[in-house]
Amino acid sequence: MRFSSSIAASAALFLSGSSALNILMSNDDGFGSANIREFKKQLDAMGHNTIIVAPAVQQSGKGGSSSYTGEANLTGPSEYDLIPAGAPSIGADPHDSSIWYYNGTPAACVFVGLDYVLPRYGNFSTPDLVVAGPNFGTNPGPFLYTLSGTLGATYAAVGRSIPAIAFSASNDETPYTAITNSSNTATYVAQVSAKIVKSFVSNTPKGQAILPLGYGINVNIPPLTDAMHDPPVVKTRLTGNADTDIAVWNATTGTFHYGNLEPPAAGVNTCLNGDCSLPGETYIVEGGEVSVSVFSVDYDAPSNAYTTAVFNKLKGIASNTTASRRRTRRSVNYSHP
Ligand SMILES: *[C@@H]1O[C@H](CO)[C@@H](O)[C@H](O)[C@H]1NC(C)=O
Ligand SMILES: *[C@@H]1O[C@H](CO)[C@@H](O)[C@H](O)[C@H]1NC(C)=O
Ligand SMILES: *[C@@H]1O[C@H](CO)[C@@H](O)[C@H](O)[C@H]1NC(C)=O
Ligand SMILES: *[C@@H]1O[C@H](CO)[C@@H](O)[C@H](O)[C@H]1NC(C)=O
Ligand SMILES: *[C@@H]1O[C@H](CO)[C@@H](O)[C@H](O)[C@H]1NC(C)=O
Ligand SMILES: *[C@@H]1O[C@H](CO)[C@@H](O)[C@H](O)[C@H]1NC(C)=O
């Protein structure tokens, strides 16, 4: 109560300055998705500077594959007919120069954002944060981690040394043009997503990275309703009751379709890294709560007796040290303290 107004004003300035991030946004549902557009509105309202670079058409299920179109121009219209056939394969939304589409996979959109859109057209070049989604449909567990384009965009960014968060929700696919008010599931999932970004930002000192190198976050959001759109947030892990596919043969059609293995497979649910006492995100989202898991893109097995025993099976054919004379590429080795 005794702060002078000038101190209060500069404190407010400092706080707003420290919390304003440059954010690259993407997804796999495309640049016209209601979820990503509502999320952008929320992040912009919080004072962040955002640019979307997202697929021109639906690119779900592409995982982390980075696939660039060989066509200079779109061979068909973009999703929801927002961009006509024949327009360039990369371009800005005619109504908003901070929203870009590209006719490639989600991971490719992140690379095109980092290496083409931001350097040429952005007012920042390296984002402080990449966010992907919120996806239409949840992505819990390691199987969906590898399958989902929303996760693929996220771990592509982490691989490029940029902190990244994937958001996946339970609402149905909706074009942004269908949103007419703020009482709808796309706005609600954007609000939950923005609340999580806000927590990461406000708990990171100014000038520090939002996440350590090599780390990313996977957020899954349960179904939201007008009556319940701010559910509890729970710390989780990727494994634990996570699903994996089986191939179901249909003799009538002569084709396969997928199903979930029951009970869940031990392989995909083995706890090798992280805190094994945390609940699996699959359980938590099924229970109506928001799951937040921390992943890393270091896919090496932990250093323990199992790994030593596995390596020992190479006895006699593999050595412990690298043959440095045969190494032709520059070696980098980043370890956290
Ligand atoms: C792409 O479209 C532009 C006009 O928008 C045209 O000038 C160009 O020739 C097209 N490129 C190809 C490879 O078709
Ligand atoms: C960056 O550009 C966007 C428009 O793309 C604008 O809204 C925003 O204010 C700019 N931010 C800064 C920090 O110049
Ligand atoms: C808000 O929009 C949704 C559709 O997105 C509609 O179902 C609902 O009735 C609208 N609510 C109000 C208060 O206009
Ligand atoms: C196989 O496909 C047919 C035709 O789509 C469908 O009617 C039937 O229910 C399917 N059977 C199974 C076991 O999924
Ligand atoms: C290689 O590593 C294994 C296990 O870490 C150790 O037992 C063995 O002595 C090492 N061999 C050499 C040649 O350093
Ligand atoms: C990488 O760095 C860590 C920690 O500094 C060190 O223990 C390790 O031996 C290094 N690995 C290589 C291959 O240089």
Structure description:
- The protein has a single domain, classed as Stationary-phase Survival Protein Sure Homolog, Chain: A (3-Layer(aba) Sandwich).
- Helix content is 28%, strand content 20%.
- It is built from eight helices and eleven strands.
- The strands form two sheets. The protein has a nine-stranded mixed beta sheet, with helices on both faces. Strands 9-10 form a two-stranded antiparallel sheet.
- Helix 2 crosses helix 6.
- The N terminus is likely disordered.
- One 2-acetamido-2-deoxy-beta-D-glucopyranose binds next to loops.
Question: Could you write a compact summary of the structure shown?
Answer:
Belongs to the SurE nucleotidase family. By secondary structure, the protein is an alpha/beta fold.
What is the CATH architecture term?
Answer: 3-Layer(aba) Sandwich
What is the strand content?
15-25%
Cα-atom radius of gyration: 22 Å
Number of domains as seen in the coordinates: 1
Q: What gross morphology would you assign?
A: globular
Main beta sheet strand tally, sense and closure: 9 strands, mixed
List bound small molecules: 2-acetamido-2-deoxy-beta-D-glucopyranose
Assign the CATH topology.
Stationary-phase Survival Protein Sure Homolog, Chain: A
Number of strand segments:
11
Looking across the biggest beta sheet, what order are the strands in? 3-4-2-1-5-6-7-11-8
Average pLDDT number: 93
CATH secondary-structure class: Alpha Beta
SSE string:
HEHEEEHEHHEHEEEEHEH
First and last CA, distance: 41 Å
Q: Level of helix content?
A: 25-40%
So how many helices? Answer: 8
Q: What structural category arises from helix and sheet content?
A: alpha/beta
Per CATH, the superfamily is Survival protein SurE-like phosphatase/nucleotidase
Uncertain parts: 1-17
GO molecular function: metal ion binding; nucleotidase activity
Protein name: Sure-like protein
Keywords: Hydrolase, Metal-binding, Signal
Organism: Aulographum hederae CBS 113979
